[in-house]
Amino acid sequence: MSAQETALTKALDGILTHRKQSGLPVFSVDGPFLSSPPDFFSNDYLSLSTNPLLRELFLRKAASVPRLFGATGCRLATGNGEEYRSLEERLAPFFQSPDALLCTSGSVANQGFWSSVPQPGDVLIFDQLTHFSSCDGAQLSQIPKDMQYTFEHNSVSSFKRCLEDVLKRHHAEIVQGTGTVFVAVESLYSIDGDFSPLEDIVQIVEELVPEGHAHIFVDEAHTSGVLGPNGRGYVAHLGLGERVHTKMHTLGKAWGHQRGVLATSSTVRKYLLNCCKALGYTTCIAHTDIHVLNCSLDIISGPKGQELRDTLVHVVQYTRTHLGNALRHFPAEIVSLTLPSTHPPDDLDRAAAVRRAELKSYSPVIPLITPHAIDLADHLVRRGYNAAALVYPVVNVSTVRVIVHAENTEAEVDRFVETVVEWATAKMQTVSQEGQHVEEVSG
Predict the structure, then answer these.
(1) Burial of residue 217 (number of CB atoms within 10 Å: 0-12, 13-18, 19+)
(2) Beta partners for 189?
(3) How far apart are CA 243 and CA 203, in angstroms?
(4) What DSSP state is assigned to residue 210?
(5) pLDDT of residue 147
């Protein structure tokens, strides 16, 4: 047996083969590569990664700074400098936070926070669709599983029941002791493109949890740069800046680059630097990143940023309207823009749903919900789009996630909608013929 063919590689090949035979996609990043199709699938919401102004600002900066490349070490050793702290000192007030800590990515920021900040005696409450990086971090934390809870996705009533139950079960730790209730939600959930009922969650926490015993954490990965005054995010958009304790902003989506930042208190920042190995003992981000992110912040917080956000809102509204009109004649068994309801709403959930519906025009994520997601994605790829299906176990409901961008034109949207309708029409005919065949055989 060669070094390339071992018992391990055979086992892994067997798993991948079984995955494919089960109808699950087996992905490859080795090509073929699409040339330059209209972008309806990346998370470059403001199209900054291809923006000539960002390129111009960075190249001008690169030509004038003494250091441009590697950090040479971790933040606690040689990988530190004035440029890093200066950027954090710009980001903290921008995100309406006492302090900020740069991280190698948003996922690392989530995992680092949740694996180290909660202390013995604390309780964690997560939305059931919270990003895996936060869930993985919680599994590495000092909090046992019987003190980690989830509530139904975006359900205000489920959250309230969960929190009331937590306070009863852990009365000694929280109400009478020194414990903290941590609450984790996302601003915008990236699969379904739905906003969290954050206003309601914050209000319920403040009503039920004794003052000083709660810590609300919001993952702003998909709203940073897109929402709020000057692109500050969802928390700022709702005016909740001082009532949310920690915000995680990724800088690799609307910001057009990469990395992440935790906007939090100075105490939490200092604790993470000293006690979180994932953040303190890894090579710091390169000087290149610092310069690009400063340039991105200049654009996002300025008039050009607002222009891009206004354009994005227009493209979102145009796409939602045209997709909705084009697909309304197809049954949900073929394709739909509406997720099936998972639980009957009560008054709390209805009120929250109305408020979130008003925000829909800000969400650039539009799911095409279909049991034939792999087939639809294949059709889109054949037409030149860089599409991918999201199926179980990644999601519970098969979806092809469409993402629109500030750079998309109405003509591009029209062509994309026509391509989806072309597929849906053919698929409905195929399904109808298959149904007739089954009836004939049964008869």
Answers:
(1) buried
(2) 194
(3) 9
(4) P
(5) 92
Contacts 24+ apart (CB under 8 A), 303-311: 304/53, 305/46, 305/225, 305/230, 305/231, 306/230, 306/231, 308/46, 308/47, 308/48, 308/406, 309/46, 309/226, 309/227, 309/231, 309/406, 311/406
Residue type at 282 in one-letter notation: T
Per-residue pLDDT tens over the stretch 208-247: 999 999 999 999 999 999 999 999 999 999 999 999 999 9
Estimate to the nearest angstrom the gap between the alpha carbon of 1 and the chain centroid: 43
Check if the beta carbon of residue 398 is closer than 8 Å to that of residue 387: no
- Residue 153, SS3 per DSSP: coil
- Count of H helices and E strands in the chain? 16, 12
Tell me the three state secondary structure of residue 148.
Answer: strand
d(CA 183, CA 196): 13
Altogether, the residues listed in the chain come to a count of: 443
**What does the pLDDT look like over 65-98, one tens digit per residue?**
999 898 888 888 888 889 999 999 999 999 999 9
Rounded CA separation 268/246 (Å)? 9
- pLDDT given at position 395: 81
Low-confidence ranges of the chain (pLDDT < 50): 438, 441
Token pair for 305: 């940023």
| 338 SS3 class | coil
pLDDT of 436: 61
- Can you tell me the distance from the alpha carbon of 393 to that of 85, in angstroms, rounded to the nearest whole number? 41
* Tokens read off for 302: 């300025």
The structure tokens listed for 166 are 């937590």
Give the HSE-up count for residue 395: Cα atoms under 13 Å, Cβ half-sphere.
21
Residue 249: predicted pLDDT: 97
What is the structure's pLDDT at 396? 81
Structure tokens at 407: 């750079």
